[in-house]
Amino acid sequence: MRNPRFLILCLLNCFVFIVRADDFKFPLKSNSVKFAAIGDMGTGEAPQLEVAERMNSSRQAFPFDFVIMLGDNIYGGSSPKDFEKKFEKPYKRLLDAGVKFYASLGNHDNPNERFYKPFNMNESNYYAFKKGNVRFFALDTNYMDAKQLVWLQKELQDAAGSNDWKICFFHHPLYSSGRTHGSSLELRALIEPLFIKYGVDVVFSGHDHVYERVKPENGIYYFTEGSSGQLRNGDLAKTGMTEDGFDTDRTFMLVEIAGDEMYFETMSRSGAVVDSGMIQRRPS
Amino acid sequence: MRAKTNIVPVMTTFLLTTALFTVWPTSSYGQSTTEATQDAMSAKRNAKNDSGFKEFSDHVQAYFSLRKSAESSLPALKPTALPEMITAHQQALARKIREARANAERGDIFSEAAREAFRHVVREELQGPHGHRARRTIQQGEPLKSVRLHVNEPYPDGVPFTTVPPALLLKFPKLPEQVAYRIVVRDLVLLDSEANLVLDRIPGIFPETN
């Protein structure tokens, strides 16, 4: 450390980071939309249970009303026992507290999960719902056929005129620095133009068993949250598009949307905050 | 000597001009013939694909009518908080369909003409300008290595689904909501997703993945 300017810069960077982490607080407004996001969780193993427990304890400080599921909800089978072990038991306390779950399908999910009432899929592999000033679009990226594309275009078109936030969630990430899978380029070529055209604000995906926040692409914020049960330790090859990421423990996300601002916090199962921040919505 | 040396360029020019005029129409004619031949072949290919896909869609429609009547004797599946109800419905529907198609064999729905049309579309897409994207989709969709499926048998519980490239889904004939295309190892499989039942398959249509 012969160069004092370099040392000062390093210290400043640490300081900025610490201030940012310490400073972060959810506004916890009474009429805001509060939810959690989990992906690739349905293993029924201890880490999933620990994440679920951490979600439950977080609810005391951050009372989220619902959870979006980014696919691979039930791994390894779809018997009643699988549903019990990999969903009902881990999230029992949240379910008992009236927290609703909204699922999207991953490549490990039986499409008949759409009939499972606690997943709120309305009997369809893809669907939309609205909470406060936020519209959610759950897609089935295992099977992006013409029918689903037409549906998506119509839903986004209908929403485009409104002042609502537009959030899409689905399994396969359009942008990901995960070594195992990475970005789904074909899917990106197909649906990203619709996202841009109709003003989608934020996208949540899973599939890569890591957490990643990507630098905004064409004004859209992309999150990969695929480590709420599974984990590929060290699988995140941070690239130029990575804003932040974490790949050494299981995580889940807490999100609050208040007016034109979206606050988010990504927490590990031990309770450490691994990422947080606020996104200001683009003017429509 | 001078006259002799002068005549060489003249003769050369004459010969080149003659050659050009001889070759030009031939070459032009050859080009349009090639194009015309390619167009004709392409039209023939498209017509063949159309007719193969038409045959396939007719078979799917026939299956769907049969399925409808098999399903009519079962109570409709509504959203339920009891997964056992979903499993029971899936199994009961599969049983009914299996009984109604007791003699079903590979090739019943994917007829020879249909198989040829599907093979052509898959080959064309995977080798086309955006083929790398479709191949990557399959690769990222966790391709299966060693699952063996049989017509009229269930898709094995817990085995993941390989993502079907959207580019192919947009080119394949449309299916009723309850029926889906699946990629299993190197096969294209037609699956009744609600009954979780294999309806037919085309073996070895996809290239090997790493």
Give structural notes.
The complex is a heterodimer of chains A (284) and B (210). With 284 residues, chain A is α/β, with parallel strands linked by helices. Chain A contains 6 helices and 13 strands. In chain A, the strands form 2 sheets. Chain A has a 7-stranded mixed sheet, with helices on one face. A 6-stranded mixed sheet of chain A has the order 3-2-1-11-12-13, covered by helices on one side. In chain B, strand 1 (179-184) and strand 2 (187-192) form a beta hairpin. The longest helix of chain B is centred in the N-terminal third of the chain and has 71 residues, at 2-72. Chains A and B meet through helix 3, helix 5 and helix 6 of A and helix 2, helix 4 and helix 5 of B.
Question: Could you give a quick summary of the protein structure above?
Answer:
The complex is a heterodimer of chains A (284) and B (210). With 284 residues, chain A is of the alpha/beta class.
Looking at this protein, list some descriptive labels.
heterodimer; A: 284 residues; alpha/beta; Purple Acid Phosphatase, chain A, domain 2; 7-stranded mixed sheet; 6-stranded mixed sheet; 6 helices; 27% helix; B: 210 residues; mainly alpha; 3-stranded antiparallel sheet; 5 helices; disordered N terminus
Could you name the CATH class of chain A?
Answer: Alpha Beta
SS content category of chain B:
mainly alpha
Supply the helix-strand structural class of chain A.
Answer: alpha/beta
Question: What about the largest sheet of chain B?
Answer: 3 strands, antiparallel
SSE topology:
The complex is a heterodimer of chains A (284) and B (210).
Chain A: H1 4-23, E1 33-38, H2 46-61, E2 66-69, H3 80-88, H4 92-96, E3 100-103, E4 127-131, E5 134-138, H5 146-160, E6 165-169, H6 185-197, E7 202-205, E8 211-217, E9 220-225, E10 242-246, E11 251-258, E12 261-268, E13 273-280
Parallel strand pairs in A: 1-2, 2-3, 5-6, 6-7, 7-9
Antiparallel strand pairs in A: 1-11, 4-5, 8-9, 8-10, 11-12, 12-13
Chain B: H1 2-72, H2 83-100, H3 112-127, H4 131-140, H5 166-171, E1 179-184, E2 187-192, E3 197-202
Antiparallel strand pairs in B: 1-2, 2-3
